[in-house]
Amino acid sequence: MRTNPVNKHLYTWFIANICFPIHEFFKRHHTVSIRRELEITQWWDKSQIEQLQLSKLKRLLIHAKANVPYYQKIMRDLAIEPEQFESLAALSKLPLLNKAAIRTNIESLKSLNAQSLVRSNTGGSSGEPLIFYLGKERVSHDVAAKWRATRWWNVDIGDPEIVIWGSPIELGTQDNIRALRDSLFRSKLLPAFEMSDQKLQIFLDEIRSFQPKMLFGYPSALSFIARYAEKTGELMNDLGIKVAFVTSERLYDEQRQQISKTFNCPVANGYGGRDAGFIAHECPAGGMHITAEDVIVEILDNQGTPVPCGESGEIVITHLASSDFPFIRYRTGDIGKLDDQLCSCGRGLPLLKEIEGRSTDFVVAQDGTVMHGLALIYILRKIPEINAFKIIQENLDLTRILIVSKSALDGATIKLITNEFQTRLGNDITIKIEEVNEIPLEKSGKFRYVISKVIPP
To answer: Where on the phi/psi map is residue 70: left (φ > 0), alpha (ψ -120 to 50), or beta?
Structure first.
């Protein structure tokens, strides 16, 4: 069935169909019309979507060649003629764009005819924040894509929403106008910078009082809250929450299970970022649908060569609605896999098979073997005395483990951890276990279980 009617309360209908469109009109965004188009194109087949992508890609590159100094030079030097592109594979003629290049060329990446650019930046949870600019076209498309994905889950703008977030960008804009808008749209923001028992109890009280239809936040934050509710015996499964949207971190299976069990709702994973845009979102059938109308996703190996579907590589994106400040073949630093199957929901949008995390979520053994941090995470997760942990691979010879435990770890447990880490990373490495009272979140409010400072070979 290709319709997905949203059962709206009258107030929700009023917000989604009257207030929010007026809000976007005054911001000079085209979100409403774009979302309507996306709800049609999501049912197109693969060839139709690829033709749409090619048309938008050529338009973006022709614009960049004429108006963006950074790409004017590149296309002139490489003799690239985007008008002659006959397939998406021609995109590989252009060089990859990384964060260092953006920092160095930030002014020349702006379109000469761009208007009303807004300065933005990443949270910097994995290093130095990246500063870049967004135009109204780009913002409109990203908001519309998120809106479409929200409606897949039978909720809409205007349904009561609790947002557990930690970005200082959002939290810094809580002026009177923003507060009024959030009140009108029934969206309540709770800062996720601190996860003490006192704060977790406040979160539970706020959620119960607000009676949201949806939750939105980092998977680590929502799972922290869910585990605290379970530990304290506070039932949260009777609130009528329809879905918990999670994003901005890798979603682990145990987090999904904990959130779903505690709040009695499905968990919908989303993938994207301020820089890369709204890349993909999970539908109720379980497919991680790429926003293919706006984003071309490549999966590349260390040499920049595309890998087959089902194989891991770096996620590289081209945002087709970024003409004011182009993101063309942008290296996200994330590792993932494409899927060559279609989702059972019937949408023709291509799928991400797996999002494995950031490249810094992988660790490197002394013999050069690269492995996902899960290989180490599972060692600690099976020890019941451990409440929280963080693994930091400082170099090939030293790995530190921060541990919050119910009581001081005994010698046998410390030896077990050390031996299992050395088995995976190398018998000669130093494992430094540091027992702490709490593990601080990143500046962005995210929680990272693994940080490796070793560059994979």
So the answer is: alpha
Q: Is residue 443 helix, strand or coil?
A: coil
Cα maximum dimension of the chain: 68
List of E strands, 94-176: 118-121, 131-134, 161-165
Q: What is the pLDDT of residue 129?
A: 72
* Alpha-carbon torsion, ordered 427, 432, 437, 438, to 10 deg: -70
Residues 6+ apart with CB under 8 A from 320: 53, 56, 57, 60, 293, 294, 295, 296
Cα 169 to its chain centre, rounded Å, is 16
pLDDT, tens digit, 9 for 90 and up, residues 183-204: 999 999 888 766 678 888 999 9
The mean per-residue pLDDT over the stretch 91-112 comes to 96
Q: Is 422 within 8 Å of 429 (Cβ atoms)? A: yes
Q: Given pLDDT bands bounded at 50, 70 and 90, which one contains residue 245?
A: very high
- Domains of the chain (ranges; CATH) run 10-359 (3.40.50.12780), 365-452 (3.30.300.30)
Is the separation of the CB atoms in 162 and 215 below 8 Å?
yes
CB-based contact 300:286 (threshold 8 Å)? no
The pLDDT tens digits of the residues spanning 77-91 come to 999 999 999 999 999
| Tokens read off for 129 | 């924040």
Which range in 110-114, 167-171, 172-176, 250-254 is most confidently predicted, on average pLDDT?
110-114
Residue bearing tokens 């019309």: 33
For residue 183, what are the CA distances in angstroms to 171, 205, 218, 280, 426?
15, 18, 22, 28, 54
Encode pLDDT of 134-179 as tens digits.
Answer: 999 999 999 999 999 999 999 999 999 999 876 544 445 556 677 8
User: What is the side-by-side strand order in the sheet with 187-191?
Assistant: 187-191, 161-165, 214-217, 243-246, 267-273, 277-282, 288-290, 351-358, 330-339, 313-319, 295-300
